[in-house]
Amino acid sequence: MNMQTKEETKELEKLYAETVHRVQRGVISKGKVIAVKNDVVVVDIGYKSEGIIPLSEFTEAELLGLKEGDVVEVLVEKINDREGVITVSKGRATKIRAWEALTAAYNSNSKVAGKVIEKTKGGLIVDVLGVKAFLPASQVDIKIIKSLDSYIGQTVSLRILKLVPPRSHSNISADYIAGTSLIVSRRSIVEEERQIKKEETLKILKEGAILKGVVKNITDYGVFVDIGGIDGLLHISDMSWGRVNHPSEFFSIGDEKEFIILKYDGETHKVTLGYKQKKADPWLSVEEKYKLGMKVIGKVVTITEYGVFVEVEEGLEGLIHVSELDWSPRQKHPSKYVSAGEEVEAKVINVNRDERRLSLSIRQLKPKPWEIVGERYRVGQIITGKIKTITDFGAFVRLPEGVDGLIHISDISWTKHIKHPSEVLKKGQKVEAVVLSSDPEKERMALGIKQLKPDPWHDEIPAKLKLGDERKGKVLRITDFGIFVELEGEVEGLVYSSEVNTSKDLKEGDEIWVRVIKVNVDERKIGLSMKNVKTSEN
């Protein structure tokens, strides 16, 4: 066996003494993993005794990757030479190193990364290198944050505003350290980044330039856009060449789009943006693109009492006046014909670039009702319709095609003397009538009800009423020149004043016996007499 020299022995004693001096309570040492047991991890920290780390100080992921020979930093908590055991803490060593790194970052004003783990009163709790830091709500961003919940789980860059580290290593615990304080700010990082972007933006910012921007706020009069560290205003009037009811129809917060710089004030840094100006004004070429008579397809965007606005292309709307929706003489409200968002086909009937007016028509794509009537109906044809209007001179009948034919008062009855059409016809009444004449160009049609039956004056009345015949009739009207009497429940005759039996006190509705003394077929008149009537009732 080789014997050690005195020099070698002294050198070993020196190294041993230095090691023992280095490994003492409260000092961080490097430990090499010797074994992983059921409840502890055994490490060699260069001392005569081995260090013991509770298994609970390792995460599951750390334990899965832990193997013999791995080196971990530990804090020496307790040395028991008698039992040959040293208790060490990996967690507390990690905390100490974290606070050292945080202190260095604070002193150098460096950035640190932190993960937002929860919301608390007045702000957020952030995990920074394993240390819980407070991020006040006012320090989250340069803009007002409506909800802090969206930040939970995010990893963000921070700068330390306030730091009060532990007074000694013995005060450090895994979760909370009494007397410590760590307050951080994200706002300062955002401001720095925004300033950098602003400086870059200013290099290229000029009128006419097209820059990308992010919509950050929406108002009734426009939207505010961050174009790179600088906010610009896009007014509602510069969003589209067409109608814009509200900016929210075109933009949402967070939208990233390209905008054109309309105006830039270098002193105030006020920026006015444009969006519609990226495209040419469609009204400039409207007369070249849209010719009279051509068909267009568009989407209904607005419905008013006087008509419907249809978008035929982006930024270009045409108006279908209420009178151009239907051929009916009495138009309904436009909403009865079309719905908002509906796609419709229309005909161009007027184009005016200077007045920015494009007039369209739906009804002119349909046949005129009178044209249909002219094709469908012939003189002598029987039609069915409802009485739409009654006037002093007749009644208008609505045909299925939506046009009205006139029944003149003289064409209601062959035999009755009608003072007003309402005596025999009612509004809404369904009637049959004969087409007497039709003039589609002048939009006229004459109808008759009495023509449904043959003219009784030709054969029927002369055959029934002979001179000298006595008939029972009902008094209709009493006048100065005689009494009108209804005979056979249909035809009227006149008792001449000279032929009235003055001994009778008559009133309308009374029944009397009369004698036929005149039948004039040409003039359609029947003369009657109450005198010399053989019937005993007289």
Question: What does this protein structure show overall?
Answer:
The protein folds into 6 domains: 21-92, OB fold (Dihydrolipoamide Acetyltransferase, E2P); 109-191, Nucleic acid-binding proteins (OB fold (Dihydrolipoamide Acetyltransferase, E2P)); 205-278, Nucleic acid-binding proteins (OB fold (Dihydrolipoamide Acetyltransferase, E2P)); 282-365, Nucleic acid-binding proteins (OB fold (Dihydrolipoamide Acetyltransferase, E2P), Beta Barrel); 369-452, OB fold (Dihydrolipoamide Acetyltransferase, E2P) (Beta Barrel); 460-529, OB fold (Dihydrolipoamide Acetyltransferase, E2P). Helices cover 14% and strands 40% of the residues. The chain is built from 7 helices and 30 strands. Strands 1-2-3-5-4 form a 5-stranded mixed beta barrel. Strands 8-7-6-9-10 form a 5-stranded antiparallel beta sheet. A 5-stranded mixed β-barrel has the order 11-12-13-15-14. The model is unreliable at 15-21 (pLDDT under 50).
